Amino acid sequence: MDTSNPAAFVNAELLHFYVGRRVRALTQVVRSDGGIVIGKSTDEKQLVVKGSPPPAPLTTFVEVFGIVNNDKSITPDIWTNFGDAVDMVSYNKLCQLAHGEYKHLFL
Amino acid sequence: MFSASQFDSATAFSGGGFMSSQPSQLNDSSPAPSKSRDSQGLIPVTVKQISEASQSGDEKSNFVIDGVDLNNVTLVGMVYEKVERNTDVNFILDDGTGRIKCRRWVNETFDTKEMEQVMNGMYVRVYGHLKSFQGVRQLVAFSVRPVTNFDEIPFHFIDCIHNHLRSKLKVEGITSGNPSSISSLNTAVKSEPNGSQAPSSNPGYAQYSVDGLKDCDKLVIDYLQQHSDMSDERGIHVNELSRELKLPLDKIMLSLKTLGDDGLVYSTIDDYHYKQA
């Protein structure tokens, strides 16, 4: 059993708390070209993912696991297609709860 | 009852060498009397919570989280390092809070078919039983299902938080014996200008029963106590209770019935006026 490398649930607002650390974020893909994917975070702000997605086409919503860079972009290692209809509001609320009072259940 | 049947299905599905040394242990382990009312069948957890669970009992591997004995758990995470063997399938489940080894015994075609659907890198929902094997906590899974609706992922973690809160409230209610500790957790509490007890404005918390007296009942009896006028034989009208405590009338009537059965209140001139006994 290994809890040494957890990923924190983040939206754009929480990114700065986790610079250099592993996070997971749900994003609505706005644009994807040349090794950068621009998306909308669950709290309606811009999210930049600096990496190329896997060969399979991206759905509208994608969850990304990765490390937060100094410029608040994410360098991804795992991409998961979440489909074309997913509730961003619940995920956003989860980010707030998991960062706040209930952090000890996650990190 | 529910958890007992879960135990049986767990042993039926698992079989094999891993479980066979401990079946009597499973049947013998009985929840402590104070927890038997609250023993839950299936608890949503994160791997982090499992790593921090304490173990109760002698050498029995009874895990305890938030004061609740763990029978079966459910997790949502990604599958890694899937290894298929003749009698079982092993994999690592990574739910973002940690990684845990899982084992799914495959005895029948149903089991094999189920595990064939599961691939590395895929999100799955796992139901299983926690075991400690040579000091390492592992999960014996009896159901592994690929996630198809991805709302299930935030749902599961919110479910973990919700369950954690519920168990915490139950423990606090039993140990402190003071239901007002529950109303202090409510986010918005309105305080009356004449200094009477601030009513709970979050009816959601009124459902958790503490020491047999529901939160709602306590509010009603406290209100009656504070507003009782010995010279006024009529008592308090139920509409006033509903309005002042911000609770629906049917809840008030239910509370009054419970309190009346316990001999704590009585109706006066009609069924809508009550006084504290």
From TrEMBL, chain A:
Coiled coil regions, renumbered to chain: none
Keyword field contains Nucleus: yes
Keyword set, alphabetical order: Nucleus
Domain of life: Eukaryota
Matches recorded under CDD domains: RPA3
Subcellular location: Nucleus
InterPro entries per UniProt: NA-bd_OB-fold, Rfa2
GO cellular component: nuclear lumen
Family: Belongs to the replication factor A protein 3 family.
Name by which UniProt lists this protein: Replication factor A protein 3
Source species: Flemingia macrophylla
Lineage: Eukaryota, Viridiplantae, Streptophyta, Embryophyta, Tracheophyta
Automatic annotation (TrEMBL), chain B:
Domain OB, first and last residues per copy: 73-146
Keyword Nucleotide-binding: no
Annotated spans, Disordered: 15-41, 184-204
Localization terms from the record: Nucleus
Domain Replication protein A C-terminal: residue ranges: 180-272
MF terms (GO), sorted A to Z: DNA binding
GO cellular component: nucleus
InterPro entries: NA-bd_OB-fold (IPR012340), NA-bd_OB_tRNA (IPR004365), RFA2-like (IPR040260), Rfa2/RPA32 (IPR014646), RPA_C (IPR014892), WH-like_DNA-bd_sf (IPR036388), WH_DNA-bd_sf (IPR036390)
Main location: nucleus
Key words, A-Z: DNA damage, DNA recombination, DNA repair, DNA replication, DNA-binding, Nucleus
Pfam families: RPA_C (PF08784), tRNA_anti-codon (PF01336)
Polar residues: compositionally biased ranges: 19-33
Biological processes per GO annotation: DNA recombination; DNA repair; DNA replication
PANTHER family to which the protein is assigned, alphabetical: REPLICATION PROTEIN A 32 KDA SUBUNIT A, REPLICATION PROTEIN A-RELATED
Family of this protein: Belongs to the replication factor A protein 2 family.
Functional summary from the UniProt entry: Component of the replication protein A complex (RPA) required for DNA recombination, repair and replication. The activity of RPA is mediated by single-stranded DNA binding and protein interactions. Required fo cell division in meristems. Involved in the maintenance of transcriptional epigenetic gene silencing (TGS) at specific loci (including some transposons) by regulating histone H3 acetylation, 'Lys-4' and 'Lys-9' methylation.
Protein name in the entry: Replication protein A 32 kDa subunit A
